[in-house]
Structure formats: structure tokens, C-alpha cells
């Protein structure tokens, strides 16, 4: 299936995308991971304000559309089924996506702001596997893993607040866009991870 997963920063897109790729035969296309792996690439020839994605990301701002559109276009061309995570984040990107591919299901993980802040400031990443943890909700069992966990550069309180503002201003209209099109499948994201997964899985199975 061709799956789009929408949600605010910290809503659980990455966590549920990992479940989806385990269960269904699809690629995980994530603009956030792709940009983090290429934070220092030179984008100055694309007529951007800053020379690399890093400046945008560390401040919680959106990386320019031209850069992100190119990443998604290339990834979609190589994928059969996919779960797309982190894109589209504004209406221009949503229109771009419409020209690039059809979608079978559009999920929206609905989580309130207070919980989002708690999840983001407590998130830890395993740099070796890319696995996502949380100091309270989902700590690793293996002390060796725990010792190497890292915090994402943009998970500081100040940047989190800016990311949530960018979400409200730019990405909430995208949620409305799919809602108005009658294709948005809202999932209650403020449940335990396993319960969210049950709902996500059932929604995909119904749509596919
Ligand atoms: P990106 O990497 O996409 O970040 P984001 O959208 O802010 O989302 P996150 O990855 O922070 O959260 P998530 O929803 O994946 O949650 P997770 O599963 O990790 O983008 C980063 C930056 O890149 C942007 O700010 C921008 O600069 C740039 N960028 C990316 N895409 C772009 C685009 N299209 N255009 C322009 N710029 C772009 O979970 C969070 C935490 O909660 C974890 O600790 C997890 O363990 C925990 N958790 C998850 N589910 C639950 C649950 N059910 N209960 C309790 N805890 C849970
Ligand atoms: Zn993510």
C-alpha cells in the first residue's frame, strides 16, 4: 500500500512507521531522517537563504520546498509501496505530492500539545540502529544501548516550541486539506504505543 502518515512533531510518526514497515512490505520514506543524514549538503545553488539544511533544522524551521520535493520525488520513484513520514508540511508540498503519486490511506495521529512537548523533550535516539526511545515511556532494557543514546539536536525546549508553531501555521492547513478531500483517517494518538498501532494497522487493512 501507499500510506501517508501525518502528525505534529512528537506525535509518533516514526514509531508507527517502524511498525508499518515490519508488518507491510513497504519502504519508509522520511524527509526528517533524509535531511538529518544530509544536514551539511550544499544547497546554495537552489537560491536558499542558508547554505545547508542544518541552519533551518536546528532552528525548527522548514527546509525550502525545492530541496525537500527533490528528496521525496526521488524516493517515490524507487518505491513500490511506502509509508511517507514528514511530508507534506505545507500546502505547496501537498499539491506537489498530488502530482507525484496516488495514496491509498492518509493517517493522522492526533496528539495534544502538552503531551507532544513531554514526548519530544524525553525522546532519545540510538545512533547505531536509529531506534526511537523515551526516558520514561520507552526506555531501553539493554544498559549498553542506554549508554549510547543521544538526544536529537532539535529536541531542546526552545526549538520544540518553534517546531510546534511551524506545525500550527503551515501543517495544520495540510490536515484540513485532506479532511476536506474526505480521505483523512484520524487515529487517537494519545494512547499507549501498542494501542495506537492496533488502530493504525486496522485502518490500513481496511483501506488496502
Ligand atoms: P522530522 O524528523 O519529520 O520531525 P517532526 O515532524 O518534528 O517529528 P518527530 O520526528 O519529532 O516526531 P515523530 O512524530 O516521528 O515522533 P516519534 O515517533 O519520534 O523533521 C525534523 C526537521 O526536518 C523539521 O523541523 C524541518 O526542519 C525538517 N523537515 C522535515 N521534513 C520536512 C519537510 N517536508 N519540509 C521542510 N522541512 C522538513 O515519537 C516521539 C517520542 O514519543 C519518542 O520518544 C517515542 O518513544 C515517544 N512515543 C511515540 N509514541 C508514543 C505513545 N503512543 N505514547 C508515549 N510515547 C510515545
Ligand atoms: Zn520522526
Automatic annotation (TrEMBL):
It catalyses: AMP + ATP = 2 ADP. Keywords: ATP-binding, Cytoplasm, Kinase, Nucleotide biosynthesis, Nucleotide-binding, Transferase. GO terms for molecular function: AMP kinase activity; ATP binding. Its main location: cytoplasm. Coiled coil: none annotated. Its EC number is 2.7.4.3. It holds the Pfam family ADK. One of its GO terms (biological process) is AMP salvage. Catalyzes the reversible transfer of the terminal phosphate group between ATP and AMP. Plays an important role in cellular energy homeostasis and in adenine nucleotide metabolism. Consists of three domains, a large central CORE domain and two small peripheral domains, NMPbind and LID, which undergo movements during catalysis. The LID domain closes over the site of phosphoryl transfer upon ATP binding. Assembling and dissambling the active center during each catalytic cycle provides an effective means to prevent ATP hydrolysis. Monomer. This is Adenylate kinase. It comes from Natronorubrum thiooxidans.
Amino acid at each position: 500500500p501507499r500510506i501517508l502518515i501525518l502528525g505534529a512533531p512528537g506525535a509518533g510518526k516514526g514509531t508507527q512507521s517502524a511498525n508499518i514497515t515490519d508488518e507491510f512490505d513497504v519502504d519508509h520514506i522520511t524527509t526528517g531522517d533524509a535531511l538529518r543524514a544530509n544536514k551539511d549538503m550544499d544547497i546554495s545553488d537552489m537560491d536558499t537563504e542558508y547554505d545547508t539544511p542544518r541552519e533551518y533544522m536546528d532552528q525548527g524551521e522548514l527546509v525550502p520546498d525545492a530541496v525537500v520535493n527533490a528528496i521525496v520525488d526521488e524516493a517515490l520513484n524507487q518505491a513500490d509501496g511506502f509509508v511517507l513520514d514528514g511530508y507534506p508540511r505545507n500546502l505547496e508540498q501537498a499539491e506537489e505530492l498530488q502530482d507525484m503519486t496516488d495514496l491509498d490511506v492518509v493517517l493522522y495521529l492526533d496528539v495534544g500539545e502538552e503531551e507532544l512537548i513531554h514526548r519530544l523533550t524525553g525522546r532519545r535516539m540510538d545512533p547505531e540502529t536509529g531506534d526511537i526511545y523515551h526516558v520514561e515511556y520507552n526506555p531501553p532494557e539493554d544498559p549498553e544501548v542506554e549508554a549510547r543514546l543521544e538526544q536529537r539536536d532539535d529536541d531542546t525546549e526552545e526549538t520544540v516550541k518553534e517546531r510546534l508553531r511551524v506545525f500550527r501555521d503551515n501543517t495544520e492547513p495540510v490536515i484540513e486539506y485532506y479532511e476536506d478531500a474526505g480521505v483523512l483517517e484520524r487515529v487517537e494518538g494519545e494512547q499507549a504505543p501498542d494501542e495506537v498501532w492496533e488502530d493504525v494497522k486496522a485502518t490500513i487493512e481496511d483501506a488496502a
